[in-house]
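Hi W.,

Here's what went into the run:
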Amino acid sequence: MEKEQIYNLIDAFFHDELSKTEESILFTVLSENNEGKEYFKEMLKFSEVVKLTSDEVPENLDREILIRTVKFSTKKKRTKYQLSYLFAFLIAVLFIFASFFFYQKLQDYNREIKEVHKIVDYQNKVISLFINSLPAARVNETLQNEIIIKKNL
Amino acid sequence: MKLSENEKILLFGKYYEALKSGVYNYAVKMLSDKETASDVMQNVFVKFFEHIENIREEEKIKVWIFKSARNEIYGIYRKSGNSIFSKLDKTAIENISVGGFPYEKVEAAELANILLDEVNKLSETSREVILLREYAFLSYNEIAEITGVEINVVKSRLHKARKKLIDKISKLYR
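Here's what came out:
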């Protein structure tokens, strides 16, 4: 195995990126490669020192972040509820306006029907007057165009 | 991702626990100021909670969080005009707890001190790569995606930077 590959494997080992099989390959290679072994030791020391210089997250920061996210979550929930209430209110207002509008329309139609009814009444009366003013019909006793039907023998 | 409120909280908790140390160390060592780093961390995780549903794939969450942290950090640099090479915070060294003997503690503190000094001397790009790999435990692919460079460049920067640091440390403990 090439030096580069060994170094990459060692790097991956210290970052928990190797499978069990790859780990056993690495250790087999290292048992035969002194340069690799040396680099492994150096990496071990290096990662130990890195751990020493690693800062821990302060507890109050943990708490602060948790509080802020919970606040955001409840605020969002509240806004969600407020939005649904607002939506329901708007729908109710819309229905009120719609019923008012249709009531007005109904009243208008009522008024129009009454007026039309009046006109029809008046026109009825006029027609009756016309009919009454016509001369009386005369009925003749004899037929003017007599048709004689004869039996064809 | 379409998530219920409970699923959101569970997912947030899972990633917060897994990444909090990495993000905090990245921010502290990039900014050299714990208070500003704490603000960055708060903003990043609250933003993550707010946008958790907008992240399309769960696999992208890690990169999303670190990218967000990186944007916050570089935003602070732009605002304050501070150089990235400011002095690193060394309070971690004061709290070192190793070994049973005082000399072990002294040696560990000395090594830690040297490491932080050397990290401080690294170029901006190498320093960032070292922090993302060694403190945040990110893969080469993830680092490449976060920093916006090719994976080979990440590998080469990391290799060079780590070699420098290892050489310095090795000199002391040999």
